[in-house]
């Protein structure tokens, strides 16, 4: 998905913080490649301090989730480096994502999970390992379902656990509150995008699944509808919405809103929330009828060796206090749903990160669709934009 290959990076793990706990060669080691800005450096420090016995930790931030996926593919293609050959390269700090040495864990977006399983780029977590995870049973059932899949990468309650979610976000509506004061109303749901006064005032993501998906949601259908021909009035609704749109983009969709060229945008919470403190005229709402949700996951490369310290890291990210830190620093949600106090995060972001379980239950992960269905989405989207 476009969101997973584009990131507005604000802060995050610095290169100087990649290698933690340097020590003798007999220490346990953990190496992780992760999406830049998805884990605060303070969390890595706390994990290092809490570990007994001490260990060498190396966290390599990578700019785009797509690069992490491609790295998994490269590891799968190359022969595994023997333990006694070039062992020194494993603990040289990463200067980019082109490392030839397989790491212990990698960040991956949920949308890429099916493909990673199908291509055998990752291995499942062992059943005994999952049982030892203290917070696994405390995750909402939907998170456990998301990562429990068969060998084809499809959701399957009898399948293996292939990943561990550590943060998530949603598709949101962000708008200029002052412009809407002139209209006399405030957006609350997808249907508001069709209202009078918004012609050529909206910027949308240049993404067929997101745009067609929000129309499907307005019509009471699923984001993951597999046959668009079965949805009455879908094309008509899309054409009407297109008249409201001034701008399609998946990376600069917020710029016209900030400059006043548009009044409203639809975008990803990970891009939108960091902007609120700088642009107080902006307000954000999660659509009441439900929205698309995404998750960042920990996965284990196929050629990685399983070790206890990687399991400890997964569980550590789910500790309520640590989950709060990840939420506060990265401005994303946690699958643990920690209570957020006024002292943890200031408004207006706090209310957006306090999960509304009613809306969450109506929201959906964007599941990978059959190739023929994906082409149907792309074809209809292109037709609407060029009409």
UniProtKB/TrEMBL annotation:
Species: Anabaenopsis circularis NIES-21
Compartments reported by the entry: Periplasm
Keyword terms, alphabetized: Periplasm, Signal, Transport
Designated name of the protein: Extracellular solute-binding protein
GO CC annotation terms, alphabetical: periplasmic space
Any GO MF annotation of the entry: polyamine binding
One Pfam family per UniProt: SBP_bac_6
Ranges in coiled-coil conformation: none
GO biological process, one term: polyamine transport
């Amino acid at each position: 998905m476009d969101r997973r290959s584009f990131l507005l990076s604000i802060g995050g793990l610095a290169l100087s913080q990649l290698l933690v706990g340097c020590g003798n060669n007999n220490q346990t080691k953990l190496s992780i490649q992760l999406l830049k800005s998805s884990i605060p450096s303070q969390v890595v420090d706390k994990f290092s301090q809490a570990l007994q016995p001490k260990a060498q930790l190396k966290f390599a931030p990578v700019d785009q989730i797509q690069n992490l996926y491609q790295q998994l593919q490269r590891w799968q293609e190359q022969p595994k480096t023997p333990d006694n050959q070039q062992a020194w390269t494993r603990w040289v700090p990463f200067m980019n994502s082109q490392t030839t040495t397989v790491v212990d864990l990698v960040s991956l977006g949920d949308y890429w999970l099916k493909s990673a399983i199908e291509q055998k780029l990752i291995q499942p977590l062992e059943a005994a390992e999952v049982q030892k995870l203290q917070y696994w049973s405390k995750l909402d059932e939907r998170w456990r379902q998301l990562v429990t899949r068969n060998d084809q990468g499809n959701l399957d309650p009898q399948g293996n656990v292939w990943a561990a979610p550590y943060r998530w976000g949603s598709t949101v509506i962000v708008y200029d509150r002052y412009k809407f004061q002139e209209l006399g109303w405030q957006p609350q749901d997808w249907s508001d995008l069709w209202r009078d006064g918004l012609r050529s005032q909206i910027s949308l993501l240049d993404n067929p699944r997101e745009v067609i998906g929000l129309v499907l949601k307005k019509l009471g259908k699923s984001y993951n509808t597999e046959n668009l021909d079965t949805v009455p009035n879908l094309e008509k609704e899309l054409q009407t919405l297109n008249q409201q749109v001034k701008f399609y983009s998946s990376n600069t969709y917020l710029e016209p809103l900030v400059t006043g060229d548009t009044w409203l945008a639809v975008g990803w919470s990970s891009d939108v929330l960091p902007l609120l403190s700088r642009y107080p005229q902006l307000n954000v709402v999660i659509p009441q009828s439900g929205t698309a949700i995404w998750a960042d996951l920990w996965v284990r490369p196929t050629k990685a060796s399983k070790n206890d310290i990687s399991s400890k890291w997964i569980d550590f990210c789910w500790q309520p206090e640590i989950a709060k830190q990840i939420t506060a620093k990265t401005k994303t949600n946690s699958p643990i749903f920690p209570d957020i106090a006024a002292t943890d995060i200031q408004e207006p972001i706090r209310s957006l990160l306090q999960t509304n379980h009613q809306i969450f239950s109506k929201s959906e992960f964007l599941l990978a669709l059959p190739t023929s269905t994906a082409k149907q989405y792309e074809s209809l989207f292109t037709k609407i934009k060029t009409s």
